[in-house]
Amino acid sequence: MAMSRELYWFLWRRNTRYQFITSIFKNTGHTHFKSKIFCVTNQFRQFSREDGMPAGPKIYTRTGDGGKSSLFTGERRPKDDMVFEALGSTDELSCNIGLARVIAKGLTGQLDAQLEKIQCILQDIGSAVATPKSSAREAHLRRTEFSPELVDELEEWIDKHTKHLPPLKNFILPSGGQSSAYFHVARAVCRRAERRVYPLISAGEVDPVVLKYLNRLSDYLFTVARLTAKIDGKEEKIYRKPRPERNSDSV
After folding, report:
1. How many CB atoms lie within 10 A of CB 162?
2. Cα(128)–Cα(87) distance, integer angstroms
3. Is the terminal CB of the chain with fewer CB neighbours within 10 Å at N or C?
4. Run of H or E residues at 94
5. If you count DSSP H runs as helices and E runs as strands, how many of each does the chain have, helices first?
6. Judging by DSSP bridges, how do beta strands 76-78 and 68-70 pair with one another?
7. What is the mean pLDDT of residues 72-82?
């Protein structure tokens, strides 16, 4: 039983299921799940320590050394596939939000809780992106279904925070202190994630609600960038059309 629990933890951490195991071992000749379990545990070989206590599996699997990786459906694709481009961008987005949370010392508990929830939702977006409809079964799609109510929730948060900000009359430059600048970086990465996900939406591989959420999330992060500037007492810099400087002493 201890072995099964460790294996379940390992598979869950990689957002996969039994189909992933069968895709790895489809050519091994094993016909029973018990045999597959044995193969996996033999591959990692570090599930127990000398003191008898269970040890976690190795972080590396070697299954991607050939330049391909597995989707949630069990399908293997090249690592430069547009699915992995989208997954990488959403991962970078979550990392940048996490970094901004650490940098921003003046966040309220409510605002920080919202950002943490967003990071969790980005994990769910990753699951949806890693489940292209062309290779997914109905069970996969049900498990990775993305709720449109999450978009509504973001809009409510944006409206609530906007009430505490001065009216927006000019383009805002990424500025407003360190915390605000980090959220502007997260906003820009969010826009890139949106661009990477769009081809999958266009191809009918991913639920369009995912794109709508990312679109709204960039607006949320822009609002939070402005809000943190206000919390920190920093001035936002606005766009002014540059004019050539006229110096009478110039040659």
Report:
1. 15
2. 10
3. C
4. helix 82-103
5. 9, 2
6. antiparallel
7. 72
Q: Closest by alpha carbon to 127, among 153, 174, 169, 94?
A: 94
186 Cβ contact partners less than 8 Å away, ≥ 6 residues apart? 93, 96, 97, 99, 100, 221
Q: Which residue has the tokens 């943490």?
A: 116
Phi, psi of 229 (to 5 degrees): -60, -40
Extract the tokens encoding 53: 């206590």
Average confidence score pLDDT of the chain? 78
CA distance 196 to 83: 8
21: amino acid identity, one letter = I
How far, in Å, CA of 141 to CA of 72, rounded?
10
Beta strands in the chain (DSSP E): 68-70, 76-78
Tokens of residue 75, six digits: 């399908």
The CB-side HSE value for 122 (13 A sphere, CA atoms) comes to 29
Question: How many alpha carbons lie under 13 Å from residue 138 in its C-beta half-sphere?
Answer: 0
Predicted pLDDT of residue 70: 66
Kindly write down the DSSP assignment for every residue of 180-226, as one continuous string: HHHHHHHHHHHHHHHHHHHHHHHTT-S-HHHHHHHHHHHHHHHHHHH
Measured between alpha carbons, how far is residue 190 from residues 90, 94, 117, 214, 230 in Å? 7, 9, 16, 7, 22
